[in-house]
């Protein structure tokens, strides 16, 4: 049945106006984002199928290509779904603005939302002034971390440009386990030594996992 053939009290738009957005189901909310269905399914049926088959968590982790491989989801709908979850991620980040770093928890709060669903390792440099206030950040590498590939020059270049007094190294583990690997330890020690030579202290290296973190400085 097409949406326009449904009773008005069953249509997402009309239900939102009459009952409020908080009273819509997950499928109805997604239907409002997707707007249109296909010849085989109306938009509510597509939304119900997506949520029942993949769940909200798995759906939010899909890439543009993966979403387009789902029946009934073309490029436009795939982009709408990506935009929905990205907007939600940024909203969650905005609720807890971190301006000063006092511990690894602050770093986790700053990066967790953006990195928790990443399928590749993202390596960032977080730049601080003498009072540990954040003055900038820079994505250095995206992909498998390798101490032989990440050169100190690339790590400290943005710190020097921004007159940073200290930096914190940050990266995620797609597996969700924030334990330091041998490669992580090797890279950390290499960059700490480089920082000492040029006068920019590496304050910490924080690994972001699924709901938890690992800290070089706070390790037991």
Gyration radius from CA atoms, angstroms: 22 Å
What fraction strand? Answer: 15-25%
CATH architecture of the largest domain: 3-Layer(aba) Sandwich
Biggest sheet strand order reads 2-1-3-4-5
Question: How many structurally independent domains?
Answer: 2
Describe the global form: elongated
Mean pLDDT rating: 89
| Overall strand count | 5
Q: Please write the CATH class name of the largest domain.
A: Alpha Beta
Helix content: 40-55%
Compute the separation of the termini in Å.
61 Å
Main sheet: strands, sense, barrel: 5 strands, mixed
CATH superfamily of the largest domain: Cytidine Deaminase, domain 2
CATH topology of the largest domain: Cytidine Deaminase, domain 2
Structural class: alpha+beta
Order of helices and strands: HHHHHHEEHEHEE
What are the segments in which pLDDT stays under 50 over at least 5 consecutive residues?
A: none
Which keywords apply here?
220 residues, alpha+beta, DNA polymerase, domain 1, Cytidine Deaminase, domain 2, 2 domains, five-stranded mixed β-sheet, 15% strand, elongated
Task: Annotate the secondary structure layout.
Blueprint: H1 12-19, H2 26-34, H3 43-61, H4 64-68, H5 75-95, H6 104-115, E1 122-128, E2 134-142, H7 152-161, E3 166-172, H8 182-198, E4 201-208, E5 213-215
Parallel strand pairs: 3-4
Antiparallel strand pairs: 1-2, 1-3, 4-5
